[in-house]
Amino acid sequence: MIDRETDLAGPGIGSYQELEKILPDNYSSLLTPKETQKAILAIKSDFEQNLCKELDLMMVQVPLIVDVDSGINDLLDRDGSRTPVQFHILNDGLNCLDAQVVQAATKWKRLALKQFDMTVGEGLCTDMRAVRKDYFLDHDHSVYVDQWDWEKVIKSEQRSLSYLKETVRKIWKVIKGAETYVQQLFPQLRTDDYANLPNEVEFIHAEDLFDRYPNLPRKKRETAILQEYPAVFIAGIGWPLKNGDPHEMRAADYDDWATETRSSGGRTMHGLNGDILVWNPVTKRRHELTSMGIRVNAETLRKQLEIAEQLDLLKLQYHRLIVDGELPLSIGGGIGQSRTYMLLLKKAHIGEVSVTVWPKILKDMCEKKNIHVLE
């Protein structure tokens, strides 16, 4: 029997003993540190240009810190285990502020759609930076987070699984295009040792995935499906499965994981959100690239907050605006920048493409395995 804590555990690794077994032996980077930096900037430019083109987005500025009372910081999940960095701004001693470093710009983006007068079919993309202090620091999780956080205004009739899938395919086209582009610039990245990404992404619902592998915990279910399809979009993350628990805990106040949908066979499903996962041939593990979804409307916000026992959040400004219909309907997501660089540049550790802090035990471990993390 799978215990609940194991099945709902985050996607990271739990110990450095486990991480040491996972980091590849006999590793050698295909690019020098200088080439890596050039490749990162090339991917970043190409990705932003083509993501904006495919989804009709424009690049905008994004906050690093937000007011605590605004309620717009991202809680990441709904069990309270990942809390933001918070600090007090004394100012003049009279007009003080309590602020938080963003964990993601998920809710801010929806407010920004209104602020920038975006209309249906228009959207925004940000070069988002965040701090997530409660992550276990392993090969693909760091305290420092960089994402292409994007959001787009949609019509009511576009709040559907078919529109979600259409958007996923466009994003996959951008990812594949970036892979092709960087391999043209650096041909050594095209190697028989590590397979390229498939041309298409496979779709599977979290409820179908559970039925397919009912005796496996969540991470192993994901690993199993990636042996069949090296790139998958798992839809409907957040709604309780047959065992009473969701595929993964998701916050109740942005992605819509409660709306009823229908499978191709007419079966009732739930959720208008999901994740793109790929098989990483270097680490030989699941590799999450993006989490995205159609956002809650007034009805699903109330429903999800009730399920999560968080109806008290309705007193916050962001939540009131949704209930009052003052924010546009939208779809959005966050695509990990360093996660994308790590995958496309065939790196063994995210620290090879991102400068942040790491514990000594991890740095020593990487050095022994010829993995050079940036400092």
| Class computed from helices, strands and strand pairing | alpha+beta
Number of helices: 11
Radius of gyration: 20 Å
Uncertain regions spanning at least 5 consecutive residues: none
Briefly say what this structure is:
The protein is an alpha+beta fold and 375 residues long. It has helices at residues 4-7, 16-22, 33-55, 106-115, 161-185, 206-212, 218-228, 298-307, 317-323, 337-344, 360-368, and strands at residues 57-60, 65-67, 86-89, 97-101, 123-131, 144-153, 202-205, 231-235, 260-262, 268-270, 273-280, 285-294, 330-336.
List keywords for this structure.
single chain, 20% strand, alpha+beta, BirA Bifunctional Protein, domain 2, 3-stranded antiparallel β-sheet, 375 residues, 32% helix, 8-stranded mixed β-sheet, 13 strands
